[in-house]
Specification:
Helix 1 packs antiparallel against helix 3. The model has no long low-confidence stretch (mean pLDDT about 90). The chain has a seven-stranded mixed beta sheet with strand order 5-4-3-6-7-9-8, with helices on both faces. A two-stranded antiparallel ribbon has the order 1-2. The chain is globular and about 45 Å long. The chain starts with a helix and ends with a strand. The protein is built from seven helices and nine strands, in the order H-E-E-H-E-H-E-H-E-H-E-H-E-H-E-E. The chain has a single domain, classed as Vaccinia Virus protein VP39 (Rossmann fold). By secondary structure, the protein is α/β, with parallel strands linked by helices. It binds S-adenosylmethionine. S-adenosylmethionine binds next to strand 2, helix 3 and strand 4.
Length: about 190
Amino acid sequence: MQLLEDEISILEGYSKQGESYSDGQNRFGWRNPIRHDTGNILRILAMASKAGRILEIGTGHGLSTLYLASGLSPEKEWTFDTIELDAAVAGTTQERMDKLQLPVNVLQGDALDVIDQLSNTYQLVFLDAQKSHYHPQLLALLQKNLIGSGTILLADNVIDRQSECQSFLDWFVVHRKHHYILPTECGLLVAIL
Ligand SMILES: C[S@@+](CC[C@H](N)C(=O)[O-])C[C@H]1O[C@@H](n2cnc3c(N)ncnc32)[C@H](O)[C@@H]1O
């Protein structure tokens, strides 16, 4: 547990400016790790949810992965799949998880392609890749029955990047799902399906 906390401190020391990335199709994004406030909320929500099957989209260097994992019970078996587009980043983050002996699978590829290959159902999902992809990713997860009634859905940057994910936010209103946007530094959507 101490090793996990040490690794969180190391990753929190990385620049919050993040780094730019290319998705290979001349589209560029910005790889920002989650903020400290968001990390602590993710940890508490993972703890409270008692989730055994977790999915994350947008692994990066794994700061949010570690915060979520730190909230999961060491006494209970859990599965944690996390999707990362960038092969080099996915590789180093998998090594980081293996070094900490965490049962985390970093699945490399575009989230929509990876979702197509998945068959697990998930109790808690955290979205943190391209904001404009939150909506199609949600629809793909629903269509494949990877999520459903009772799944906890969390998404970062819904305040500072709201315009990019407005259609995703509207979905929760239209479908009358309990949801709330926590006014963290970037805005964290907390919802239950
Ligand atoms: C904001 S960063 C994630 C930060 C991470 N959650 C953390 O707290 O350290 C977004 C990540 O999503 C990845 N990404 C972007 N588009 C993606 C896609 N379509 N499928 C999977 N991963 C994607 C990027 O390579 C980047 O590493």
